[in-house]
Amino acid sequence: MADTFRAVLISRDEDKNQTVEMTELSPSDLMDGDVDVRVEASTINYKDGLAITGKSPIVRRWPMIPGIDLAGEVIESKNPQWKAGDKVVLNGWGLSETHYGGYAERARVKGEWLVRRPDGFSAKDAMAIGTAGYTAMLSVLALEKAGAKPEHGPVIVSGATGGVGSVAVSLLSKLGWDVIAVTGRSSEHDYLKDLGASEIMDRSELSEKGKPLEKERWAAGVDCVGSHTLVNMLAGTKRHGSIAACGLAQGFDLPATVMPFILRGVSLHGIDSVMAPKELREEAWGRLSEDLAPEKLRAIASEVTFDEVIETAKSLIDGKVRGRVVVNL
Ligand code: NDP
User: Fold this and answer.
1) What's the number of domains the chain is made of?
2) Which of 181, 292, 310, 318 has the most CB atoms around its CB within 10 Å?
3) Stretch 319-329: mean pLDDT, rounded?
4) Residue span of the signal peptide, if any (predicted)?
């Protein structure tokens, strides 16, 4: 490995103006950690778009290498759990917030943050899944642990053409659910049907203030957008159904009433991918290797070069990116 490596760096001046550039670093520039990883692939999540555009306060120390996900191979390790050549994946754990992230050819991280990459997943496959796909799986696991089953009725997925939504639609349809995919993009109905959606709902049906309780229409749901959409999803959930809340693309507010909870026993499950414990991560990655059909993954993912990462992250925030984007380092 060369002495220097390329990395994207976010910096801030005294007036808190943010700049993002491709730069050259050496291993001594990296932050503390006990495992060095040669990063082969990363990805662009919504949160990466927010960090690169500075639209939300994701970065909490400057300068920062963004990228909340990475996949690659261990170069050297002081952690007994890992050795050179091990194939690993890392999602979250403060990458791009407080610790240098995946948009660099080399990363130094804590060994306990790493998960062994399941056999059969290349680094690019793992990043086609990324935090978005692993969050979709965490949401599915939360619904299953709450007792939700396909025979109870359909499942609804909001933000369906996004990264989390696309993977959630694919997983849930493979698991036997009738999936109602909620989207604002009329041009993507065929894409969602190909992923396994049995019904498409326009996002405008859920995005405005509705009634505290609506007709019972779905038994479970995965919500990527928050705000009125999540509230309306709760209002239309069948008795004793469950919704997993993982996102805020519409807003982080929750203008809800308690009616679905106390009159229908509906449950709301929060999903946190960043600090999820290692055992849950391993369970999620194990299930992804069983339940996500490779052809669906290929349909969801597109690829960009390392040089295109900054521009693509901006497009994602402008709502111009479908599915998942793999960054090939
Ligand atoms: P994407 O940008 O890929 O997808 C978001 C989708 O939300 C869009 O594709 C769009 O879907 C929909 N959307 C966008 N704006 C609006 C709006 N104003 N109203 C309603 N729907 C909208 O992001 P990701 O899939 O990567 O992430 C989805 C959400 O989940 C984000 O908020 C992200 O921060 C969050 N997240 C949370 C995690 C956690 O640990 N809890 C982990 C990962 C992500 P469409 O065009 O189909 O309507």
Assistant:
1) 2
2) 181
3) 92
4) none
